[in-house]
Amino acid sequence: MGTGPAVALTLAVLVAANLAVHYGGGPLGLVTAVAAVALLLGVLHWAGGTRADAGLAPGTLARGARWALALIGLVGLVYLAGALIPDTRPLFQDRRHEGMGAGELAVRVLVLVPVGTVLLEEVAFRGVLYGLLCRAHGALRATVGSSLLFGLWHVLPSLHLATAKPALTEVFGDTAAGAALAVAAAVLFTAAAGVLFCELRRRSGSLLAPMGLHWAVNALGYVAGFLLA
């Protein structure tokens, strides 16, 4: 399979997975994520890709794990400082945390985020897409292409972002136009985050580095929001 057809097939899998994860959620979302990961790695293999192309070469895993642990610790310190400073504490408030119990928090942090979000998105965007594009066009184009698509991936999850987070409601307002601006901002922000994740993948040679940062940002964000709710 050539690079063009492989990228097209990857995008088709991602569109279907995005819809299923967003509108299905729960167990269906997890099953969809795992199935999509298997399909995407299969696409990379059919296109002649290797585990190294996906950032999963055995020789790089130890280095990637060290990067991941360091990044998790860094995010933890930043979140702790942000939660302790009165001016930044409101940034962690999220109406989606209202009524969340400790059990649900544990499921989100230990299952939904690592499997339903981090595993799927990192394999898709920093693993398969980055690997396919890098082999054909180099690291720069791979970074730009996968990061732009990563930003667009977040359109559906960002539809109600402006009303879910009080700090964003103050900025964008509670209108349709404000919601559209919040979505656009989320797409740009996540695309920029995608560039950082790609650079971590490139420098470490391992998918574990961006996985660690991705999990820390999402999961520890849930923990901070829960504790400050």
TrEMBL record:
- Pfam families given in the database record: Rce1-like (PF02517)
**Which BP terms from GO are recorded?**
proteolysis
Q: In what residue span(s) does the CAAX prenyl protease 2/Lysostaphin resistance protein A-like domain sit?
A: 107-220
What start and end residues bound the annotated signal peptide?
none
User: Which InterPro entries would you find in this protein's record?
Assistant: Rce1/LyrA-like_dom, UCP026622_CAAX_protease
Output one GO MF annotation: peptidase activity
* Keyword entries, A-Z: Hydrolase, Membrane, Protease, Transmembrane, Transmembrane helix
Transmembrane regions listed in the UniProt entry: 30-47, 67-85, 138-156, 176-200, 207-228
What is the name attached to this protein's record? CAAX protease family protein
